[in-house]
């Protein structure tokens, strides 16, 4: 029997990319799933494809708003009574040099990638404490500890997620809540497809080739490569692991 059977797993950004792949994997493991996303239509498509009936609920929510975070936590508790595993994952990327950025782009990316992660942890931790414990896996990035031109907004938000992960792990260790971070390099999802098109509208494949040539394993991650690390961190096999990160980058940053 799967150790995730009947565990309640809440996934933000669950309609697409990494979040969708997480949902598919937890579904195979007989978990109960709360899928959260701002994209209502894709969310419903993903739920239908999972075909889990009332073992999966969806919550349309914008994670940059605290009232919507409270809503997804309350709905999870109302429907399933608890949250065992939190995949704090919804994120966006904006690629601009500092001198090109403005207050609106700063507010947008930090609203989702920093405030959304922070307040997501706050309200889920409160729910997990009521339930005697749980596991949180935040989605960081190789940009949680490195730097690149045009990446200050995204990188600063992902550095913040690393810092929050470490603080939360210390604060919650004696409450039975483990908090860890997964740090992927480029993954084959829509997020990278959009990024490649913005960087080189005439030849997005050139961006893929350039990144792939810098990665020792010679390719982007597939979502499953990253999900494998998240499943490990969420599992009892990682019961002595908290406050740390797993890098899934094909050897790119050798961190
Ligand atoms: N794709 C990569 O190369 C890569 C690399 C490193 C880290 N990451 C991180 O992985 C996570 C998932 O990224 P992905 O590649 O699956 O991206 P994606 O764009 O494929 O999927 C992200 C999902 O988040 C949802 N979302 C966006 N803003 C939201 C909001 N305000 N509220 C609720 N949902 C919202 C989107 O609708 C989408 O369904 C992100 O945190 C991202 O920063 C991605």
Description:
The structure is a single chain. By secondary structure, the protein is α/β, with parallel strands linked by helices. It folds into two domains: 8-185 and 223-248, NAD(P)-binding Rossmann-like Domain (Rossmann fold), CATH 3.40.50.720; 186-220, no CATH class. The chain has eight helices and seven strands. The protein has helices at 17-28, 40-50, 66-80, 103-131, 152-172, 190-199, 204-214, 223-234, and strands at residues 8-12, 32-37, 56-60, 85-88, 134-139, 177-184, 245-248. The protein has a seven-stranded parallel β-sheet with strand order 3-2-1-4-5-6-7, sandwiched between helices. Helix 1 links the parallel strand 1 and strand 2. Helix 1 crosses helix 8, helix 3 (66-80) runs parallel beside helix 4 and helix 6 crosses helix 7. It binds nicotinamide-adenine-dinucleotide (NAD). The site of nicotinamide-adenine-dinucleotide has 28 residues, from helix 1 and helix 6.
Radius of gyration: 17 Å
What is the class of the largest domain in the CATH system?
Answer: Alpha Beta
Order of the strands making up the biggest sheet: 3-2-1-4-5-6-7
| Mean pLDDT over all positions | 98
Give the proportion of residues in helices. 40-55%
User: What is the first-to-last residue Cα distance?
Assistant: 35 Å
Listing every helix as H and every strand as E from the N terminus to the C terminus, the arrangement reads EHEHEHEHEHEHHHE
Strand content: 5-15%
Would you report the number of β strands? Answer: 7
Tell the overall outline.
globular
CATH domain topology of the largest domain:
Rossmann fold
CATH architecture of the largest domain: 3-Layer(aba) Sandwich
User: Major sheet, described briefly?
Assistant: 7 strands, parallel
Question: Number of helix segments?
Answer: 8
- Spans with pLDDT under 50 lasting ≥5 residues? none
Multimeric state: single chain
